[in-house]
Amino acid sequence: MIRLVTFDLDNTLWSVDHVIGRAEARMRRWLEPRVPEYAKLASAEHGAIRDGVIEANPSIVHDISALRERILAKTIEHCGYDSETSVRLAAAAFAEFLDWRHRIEFFDGALDVLAELAATYTLASLTNGNADFRRLGLDRFFAFGFCAADVGANKPHTAMFEQALAKAGVAPHEAVHVGDHPVDDMQGAQAAGMATVWVNLVASDERPNATATVTSLAEIPAVIEALNP
Question: Residues 60, 10, 139, 119: is their CA dihedral positive or negative?
Fold first, then answer.
């Protein structure tokens, strides 16, 4: 019997590209009067700074929030500000980004599906990103959640799935993961021994080896129910 249903967040329950683009634009608007030099940097300079931070801090590559804030601080410092000021401005700029990063519009039916499933199963969120399910008000459905920063690895590494299984106290065959990414979600969950539901809302012609495929979120409850013996 299925007891645990884990969900990816970005591009599974909402479209993320517009959200991130808008959040970055709002962050740049916040920086404009405070660090006017930031906008004048060439894209190659931004890229070089990012590469340098990643090379110097490989242990935080999976922590997208820490990485973004560290890159911001180094970029502001590159603009001529002292280290302490750069760290302070980067923290405030990132807070602006994170505020807008959480202003999302759920896909049609997403909240109804979560409410229906939460009445029967334990639900949890598993994301490589930095969306906080509590900040989004999803803690009324999700009993818990993990992100890559929590477990020290990005999906498709099995660490996040294994942590979820341990937290819920269920065996792999009692769990199913729902997500949109053929590799991060489908292959990662399968490697952990879980069933999988591929959310293909964009009519992708990819054919991941998922247990089941849905083209609308409304199909998910019936598909999961069908996995029960």
Answer: negative
pLDDT at residue 123 greater than cutoff 90: yes
Instruction: List pLDDT tens digits, range 197-228.
Output: 999 999 888 889 999 999 999 999 999 999 98
φ/ψ region of 176 (left if φ > 0, alpha if ψ in -120 to 50, else beta) reads beta
Closest CA to 149 of 56, 59, 20: 59
Is the bond preceding 156 in cis, omega lying within 30 degrees of 0? Answer: yes
- What sections of the chain are H helices per DSSP? 17-31, 43-56, 64-78, 83-101, 110-118, 148-151, 159-168, 188-191, 220-226
Report residue 176 as tokens: 């199913």
Residue 135: phi, psi to the nearest 5?
-65, -25
For residue range 6-34, list pLDDT tens digits in order.
999 999 999 999 999 999 999 999 999 99
Could you write out the DSSP letters of every residue in 17-57?
A: HHHHHHHHHHHHHHHTTT-TTGGGS-HHHHHHHHHHHHHH-
Summarised one tens digit per residue, pLDDT across range 59-98 is 899 999 999 999 999 999 999 999 999 999 999 999 999 9
> Taking each helix axis from N to C terminus, what angle separates 83-101 and 64-78, rounded to the nearest 10 degrees?
140
Rounded to whole angstroms, how far apart are CA atoms 35 and 137? 33
Per-residue burial over 70-107, b if 16 or more Cβ lie within 10 Å, else e, is bbbbbbbbbbebeeeebbebbeebbebbbebbeebebb
Return the closest-CA partner of residue 67 out of 45, 41, 90, 85: 90
